[in-house]
Amino acid sequence: MQIKIPQAAPSRRINRFRQEIDAAVSNVIGSDQYVLGSAVSSFETAFSKYVGCSDCVTVASGTDALALSMRALGIGRGDEVITTALTFSGTALAILHCGATPHFVDVNLATYCIDPDAIRAGINSRTAAILPVHLFGHPCDMNAIMEIASGNGLAVIEDCAQAHGAKLDGKNLGTFGNAAAYSFYPTKNLGAMGDGGAVLTNDPDLTKRLRRLRNYGFDGRDRVSTAIGFNSRLDEIQAAILEVLLLHLDDGNIDRRTVADRYRTLLRGHAIGLPPDNSGSIYHQFAVRHDNRDALMQHLAQNQIDTSVHYAPAVHKHPVFATGPTRHLPVTEKLSRTLLSLPIQPEIAMDSVDRIADVVLEYLRK
Ligand SMILES: *Cc1c(COP(=O)(O)O)cnc(C)c1O
User: Fold this and answer.
1) How far is the CA of 360 from the centre of ligand 1 (A)?
2) Of ligand 1's atoms, which has the minimum distance to the CA of residue 63?
3) Whole-Å CA distances, 243 to 183, 190, 260, 267
């Protein structure tokens, strides 16, 4: 019996850096501040430098990072936010949380990401913002998106929950829009041992509003609420863990690319769709395409290989969004029916990658 290959395995990464993490956690335990203390400020400084933005405001999750960004940008009731339905539901829930309405438009088969032409066609008098998602770590066409935004006076919030360290033509994702939202959910490329998120921005007013919103609406040290704030903070232990893992993020992303290159070499030329090949991608997932996706998934499972579907049903089909107008999104729907995420982590052994590719090819020959 072969050993099962997991689709995601965050504990492998944690165990690899266990000594550094233990020391960092131990420091926090010995301090007297477990929320909004020095570990959080230190991580915020380190992560803002890493991304290349002037400010980082950590919050409790990626969903909160998106929702609070939009709230801080003044997006709310009556506004529409143009986004993709080929994403994790948190992207679109955040739009509802701030009182606005998601306007789903189609993605581009070549990028798996939101299609600039579809954005142009979707703009109307209620449109307030564009929320592109760098799906699986692949960059959206941010140059086209920023041109559309500036031409129409729209805000841009980048969903970078799957794009820690990803680039477009050498420029870091997260530095294009008005704000960028990150998630530190354990399976992300930069993942904590619990929930966490952050907003990155170069706008000092936005930073000020976000710091207020995450902490009961308090302005500075006085416990006086000056806005309808939330309790949405990254805790000190998670911040300390993240600062350790940030040091290893680039190496982890390089390891993922090595795995992706190996999959490409082994699968190229066969009857299976390969993901976009952009040098700035950080391969949060390596998602192939096949018309009989579910049968392929089952064949892999029978061979002790765990895979995952991102995302079916696509978000516009979820009941909570069904109140909006029916959208026909052919590319999104096709991808949602055919995408299959193979295991990809920095820690996966190359002979596991070879075995996965062998089993895929065996299925294709059937
Ligand atoms: C994970 C994820 C989110 C939500 O982040 P949480 O920290 O789980 O709230 C949002 N968007 C995308 C694309 C994600 O992958």
Assistant:
1) 29
2) 9
3) 14, 10, 26, 36
Residue 172 gets the label, from left (phi > 0), alpha (psi -120 to 50) or beta, of beta
List ligand 1's pocket residues with C-beta within 6 A: 61-63, 87-88, 90-91, 133, 159, 161-162, 183, 185, 195, 197
Closest residue CA from atom 5 of ligand 1: 62
pLDDT in tens, the chain (366 residues): 678 999 999 999 999 999 999 999 999 999 999 999 999 999 999 999 999 999 999 999 999 999 999 999 999 999 999 999 999 999 999 999 999 999 999 999 999 999 999 999 999 999 999 999 999 999 999 999 999 999 999 999 999 999 999 999 999 999 999 999 999 999 999 999 999 999 999 999 999 999 999 999 998 778 999 999 999 999 999 999 999 999 999 999 999 999 999 999 999 999 999 999 999 999 999 999 999 999 999 999 999 999 999 999 999 999 999 877 778 999 999 999 999 999 999 999 999 999 999 999 999 998
- DSSP-assigned letter for residue 225: B
Ligand 1 mutation pick, 83, 88, 89, 160, max ligand atoms within 8 A of CB: 88
- Cα 86 to Cα 316: distance, rounded to the nearest angstrom: 8
Specify the ligand 1 atom closest to the Cα of 61.
7
CB atoms within 10 A of CB 117: 13
User: Would the pTM of this model clear 0.85, i.e. be above it?
Assistant: yes
Give a three-class secondary structure readout of 158-214: EECCCCCCCEECCEECCCCCCEEEEECCCCCCCCCCCCCEEEEECCHHHHHHHHHHC
Residue located via tokens 């993605």: 107
* Interacting residues of 331 by C-beta distance below 8 A, sequence separation 6+: 106, 107, 108, 109, 115
Q: Within 10 A of 292 (CB to CB), how many other CB atoms are there?
A: 13
